[in-house]
Amino acid sequence: MKLPALRxxxxxxxxxxxxxxxxxxxxxxxxxxxxxxxxxxxxxxxYTTTQAMGVHGVIEFGNRMLTFVLAAIALACFVVxxxxxxxxxxxxxxxxxxxxxxxGQGVVGGITVLxxxxxxxxxxxxxxxxxxxxxxxALWRATAEGDGAPVFLxxxxxxxxxTLMVLSSAAVVVLGVIVTGSGPHSGDNGAKRNGLDxxxxxxxxxxxxxxxxxxxxxxxxxxxxxNAPGPARAALILLVVELSQGLIGFVQYFTHLPxxxxxxxxxGAGLVWTGTLAVRWSIRERPxxxxxxxxxxxxxxxxxxxx
Length: 307
Hints:
Number of helices: 8
Order of helices and strands: HHHHEHHHHE
Helix content: 55-70%
Oligomer: single chain
Structural class: mainly alpha
Strand content: under 5%
Largest sheet: 2 strands, antiparallel
Radius of gyration: 24 Å
Number of strands: 2
Number of domains: 2
């Protein structure tokens, strides 16, 4: 029996994890966060939504069901990685990390419901999705790489600059979560907010975005200066995504956070983070392991004639 290719399965896992950010945003933006008011059941007497829960129950329960889709894709990746011949340890480890992260994400989602959409727990739920994107992206890239030691394509100063850009992108994501926790879209009309001043937090978030864009522009020029076309292309794509995301962010803020733009901004956050990972992975490559040298048998020793 021919096994399905791991690479398209890994890409499906990555896309699904990015998509989960959007469906999670839909739950929050439609005030359906408590559409299923308990966990792991939807109601005290039913694991599924009921007619009494209305459209909010359908939306929240539908988002819960997507977890099983992600789990099925992750399980398929893990099984294929196990059955590969020769088996590659990195594929097994990374696919297992994605697989184990999904039920962990589900548990945090349950805690989110049980704490009545505490904004800090909601934020943790989102950040775990970002962590799962890292694992899924690493698995997808590993399917096109060898298992040799990494070979860097740019000098050390640019590797350090890339690391600084990645840290800035992570900080933008974290502060964006805090901004969301201070805003009006709580997921339920009665849910608490984090109590922070939204204008001040939004300004700090914007300042970090400017830093991130500046670092990305610097990388675009620096990669070209050292004749690294792959990293330069990845940095340029990230820059375009960042500028698009920044434009959406400014428009949504000054138009008082319309639902459609907030949803687009959530998708943009996932794309910016994925683009950030693409730049980080582009600065090195992993060659295939060198085959061990063939052993040449020693010539048979000729008998020495007796004197």
